[in-house]
Amino acid sequence: MSDKLDIATLLKEHAPLMARVATTYEADESLREDLIQDMSLAVWRALESFRGEANIKTFIARIAHNRAVDHVLKETRRHDRHNLDEPLESISSSVTSNKQDIEIDLMTALRKLAIGYRQVIALQLEGFNQAEIGIALGLTEANVAQRARRGRAQLEQILNRR
Amino acid sequence: MDPQFESWQNAFKQATPKIDVDKLLSQVKASKFRQQLKAYTDMLVGVAVSAYSFYAALWLADSMAQTMLFITLTPIPIAFSVWSFGQHSRLWQQQTLDISALLAFKRDELVMRLKYWRISTRVCIILYVALAIIAGVNYLLYNTVFVWLVQLGINGAILSAVILRYRYLEQHLPQKLKEIDDMGKA
């Protein structure tokens, strides 16, 4: 299976997904770039064990979230400076400033969610269905639904607080 | 899909940071190459040390005891290199675990690390006490002070470093475990 998957093609297709996952965990631009690089390398190394038991996008999302969790643990220990409220420094320049405000608030709000909720909501926003999220995170569909409901309520609260 | 979620989804997709995929690919290729180079270099060093040990057993040993010592030492570096090469490869496989399994793995890893340092500390203390006894006997019987004081000094420094590392890990373990547990909470 893995020999059919070429890392260059995978990165072209899925680097934006990894970048969005990274953005929901890391506000600092340079640390985020390091994290995206780390995720890409982890995907490449893990491809050797990919047997096609899940969709490749789900496989990549799982690895991206795992590397992000690892990153948060390391950063928390190293500097105790993982600032969840820090605004994003760079986002796509194609959006208008008005849209930019909304996007910054959404991403900042996502970073304020508990990680268990954040992962589910971020994957839903990415377009994954409950079964795929369950596979990516190792949760039952009922658990995914519960986290999605609670996460969404928390997200609304955070966004309405501003 | 409700309009609010749809607007979040649009905002989420539009907030994608700019990525230079070609640059990312070359960085990732360079990182992978560096990691592989390091892994193979470590393996080669292990093979070289084992080969030298075997050479020493055949050509440099002055007595049967030395030959036996070198023969016994020969497989250790290469075995360690192969083991650490395998461990390194397995490290990447843990990234395919689901999040709860990954966190459980990290928890176990921290607990195992503390156990490893606890055992190392005990072994170092036993060795140090044995060395001190030998030093005492040598001092009493042969009055050789300097050599044994140097030995005790060097080993004392190593023992202190091991104890400090163990105490540090022991003190910080509850906090690190809490951080991992907090990650798993929803």
Task: Describe what this molecule looks like in 3D.
The complex is a heterodimer of chains A (162) and B (186). With 162 residues, chain A is an all-alpha fold. Chain A has one domain: PhyR, sigma-like (SL) domain (Butyryl-CoA Dehydrogenase, subunit A, domain 3), CATH 1.20.140.160. Chain A contains seven helices and no strands. In chain A, α1 crosses α2, α1 packs across α3 and α5 crosses α7. Chain B has two domains: 96 residues, no CATH class; 89 residues. Chain B contains six helices and no strands. Chain B is 88% helix and 0% strand. The chains are: A mainly alpha (162), B mainly alpha (186). At the A-B interface, α1, α2, α3, α4 and α5 of A face α1, α2, α5 and α6 of B. Chain A: Belongs to the sigma-70 factor family. ECF subfamily. Chain A: Keywords: DNA-binding, Sigma factor, Transcription, Transcription regulation.
Map the helices and strands.
The complex is a heterodimer of chains A (162) and B (186).
Chain A: H1 7-23, H2 29-46, H3 56-79, H4 97-112, H5 115-126, H6 130-137, H7 141-161
Helix pairs in contact in A: 1-2, 1-3, 2-3, 3-6, 5-7, 6-7
Chain B: H1 3-14, H2 21-60, H3 64-73, H4 75-93, H5 99-142, H6 146-184
Helix pairs in contact in B: 2-3, 2-4, 5-6
- What is the strand content of chain B? under 5%
Alpha carbon gap, first and last residue of chain B: 24 Å
Specify the structural class of chain B: mainly alpha
Distance between the termini of chain A: 48 Å
Quaternary state of this entry equals heterodimer
Largest sheet, strands/sense/barrel of chain A: none
Instruction: Domain count of chain B, please report it.
Output: 2
CATH topology of chain A: Butyryl-CoA Dehydrogenase, subunit A, domain 3
Low-confidence stretches of chain A are 81-100
